[in-house]
Design a protein that fits this description.
- Strands 1, 2, 3, 4, 5, 6, 7, 8 and 9 form a 9-stranded antiparallel β-sheet that branches.
- The chain is of the alpha+beta class.
- Strand 3 and strand 4 form a beta hairpin.
- It is globular, with a radius of gyration of 16 Å.
- The protein has 2 helices and 9 strands, in the order E-E-H-E-E-E-E-H-E-E-E.
Length: 153
């Protein structure tokens, strides 16, 4: 049910607080536009789908950090974005197929799995959007992979 995820380098833009009732999608799009533009400017080779790290430590706000994995550290430093390296760790992996707006309910299922498997979440979850939401595949076929760092209780 969980596996080791290898360390990887990623290109991110600042954490943003989004009120749950706000238009999170507009803020996310703005961040990804900046990430992709700056990655192109410094010739950073993108190596995977866009993703977010979610910091849900406040019920009124969700803090999130948008990022994309890159193949290696580029020669030039970005001006607004940051390059970070995540260490490897044990992760619960959960694949979700469906509408993006329903993704928040997946975390209820993940909580049940954590309890059943006697696991404890050890850090923020990461969502990887494997289906481009602008692709014409039908919302029920969107695939998002949720990674949650865990340890045994």
């Amino acid at each position: 049910m969980y596996q080791i995820i290898f360390s990887f380098i990623f290109f991110s833009y600042k954490r943003i607080n989004a009120n749950i009732k706000s238009k999170k999608a507009k803020k996310i799009k703005k961040n990804y536009d900046l990430i992709y533009n700056e990655a192109e400017e410094i010739k950073a080779e993108i190596n995977g789908p866009p993703a977010e790290t979610l910091f849900a430590d406040n019920p009124e706000y969700i803090r999130f950090e948008c990022f994309v994995p890159i193949r290696s550290i580029p020669e030039s430093n970005p001006l607004k974005c940051k390059i970070k390296i995540l260490p490897s760790s044990k992760m619960l992996l959960f694949n979700y197929y469906g509408e993006m707006k329903q993704l928040k309910y997946v975390y209820r299922d993940i909580s049940k799995i954590l309890e059943e498997k006697n696991l404890l979440q050890t850090g923020p979850s990461r969502e990887y959007y494997l289906t481009d939401p602008t692709a014409d595949v039908g919302e029920s076929r969107y695939m998002t992979r949720v990674f949650m760092p865990v340890k045994e209780k």
